[in-house]
Amino acid sequence: MKQEIYDIAVIGGGPVGMFTAFYASLRDTKIVLIESLATLGGQVTALYPEKNILDVAGFYGIKGSAFITELNKQLHVFPVEIKTETTVTNIAKSDGLFTITTHSGETLQAKTVIITTGKGAFEPRKIQIEGVDKLVGQGVHYFVNDVHDFENRHIAIAGGGDSAVDMATMLNSVAASTTIIHRRDTFRAMEQSVNQLMMSTVVRETPKKIVSVTKQTNGQLEITLAEVKNDDITNRIIVDDLIVNYGFISENKTIEGWDIQPKVAGLAFDVNQEMQTSIPGIYAVGDASHYVGKSDLIAIGFGEAPNAVNAAIRRFDPDRRGPGHSSSMVIKDGKLL
Ligand SMILES: Cc1cc2nc3c(=O)[nH]c(=O)nc-3n(C[C@H](O)[C@H](O)[C@H](O)COP(=O)(O)OP(=O)(O)OC[C@H]3O[C@@H](n4cnc5c(N)ncnc54)[C@H](O)[C@@H]3O)c2cc1C
To answer: Distance between CA atoms of 165 and 171, rounded to whole angstroms?
Structure first.
């Protein structure tokens, strides 16, 4: 049987990969979306399904999981072949086509490839305090999978970035009390998120560091804090849960062993104005792409996606007109009429 040839293979089913596949389907291309994990949604699904997203156009505070549900609906309006639990292990080029090999040994052929693999495998940055490792899952957490787990509990959040600040205000609405512990007096978060934190009842322990965390006989955690500039000034707080939010570290081994080796910049791929990597026909968007001034934000990736798709189409079908606008189509209940 003759092997199917896709116009575009999108590798990575995070939010940007999902939108890229949708936009490619809107332009009536034969498309396959390949994702390692069992569910789509990338970092949003894996790391912050309960967090509110405020900075994507059209949504002014949508829970991560609800946002991915909306992207999923959009993804299913036009035909897209979706392969989950499938990791791409190699891409090779021959006779003007790309051959994509997956972990199971299956091969697929595509005219062009758009890489949306993010920054590779990621894990939370751990708190470096003796004995805390043993308390993970017993009061110490790195993830919030369900806000209701913290209902009526006394919680502390360690960290001062966007995610820690948003989490503190969000959990404060259900928790009995919320304390945020940060090494600096200022928070590295969106200005309005910081304003919200300042106006809330969240207790701020700043500029302070955590010296020790011990579990008491009643199951609560005793956290000893010290002033960052003076170890001798300490205080203690008692909480039910400590949520550590020191960011994530990633290690991008995505292209290890691939036949084609697009030029990398740190953990991402160098791209030009068309989002093309150093390998003609291979594009990268979302967190997987790098250029001067790049920010790793969903909104930025959503802007890059149509550029990459349209450039890919110009490559394999130079005579095709477009892109036009899709305003003449009527979509009802997620289906094209
Ligand atoms: C805690 C936290 C909070 C954040 N909050 C916000 C926010 O409020 N607003 C905002 O705009 N951004 C936020 N971000 C950043 C945002 O999540 C990323 O910019 C976004 O997820 C990038 O999407 P992506 O699709 O490019 O990559 P990712 O979401 O990283 O998805 C990449 C996907 O590719 C898959 N993959 C990787 N390698 C392979 C392979 N070889 N084969 C098949 N699949 C593969 C992975 O499994 C993953 O699902 C936040 C990030 C974090 C960590």
So the answer is: 10
What integer is the mean pLDDT of 73-91? 95
Name the residue of 298, 300, 302, 304 to mutate for ligand 1: max ligand atoms within 8 A of Cβ. Answer: 298
Query: What pLDDT, in 10s, does the model give residues 207-235?
Result: 999 999 999 999 999 999 999 999 999 99
Strands 121-124 and 248-251: antiparallel
Ligand 1 atom 13 nearest Cα = 297
pLDDT of residue 332: 66
Residue 55 is part of which domain span?
5-122+249-336
What CATH number should be reported for the domain holding residue 258?
3.50.50.60
Domain count within the chain: 2
Examine the domain organization and report whether 118 and 263 are in the same domain: yes
* pLDDT class of 317 with cuts at 50, 70, 90: very high
Q: Is 188 helix (H, G, I), strand (E, B) or coil?
A: strand
Strands 31-34 and 5-11: parallel
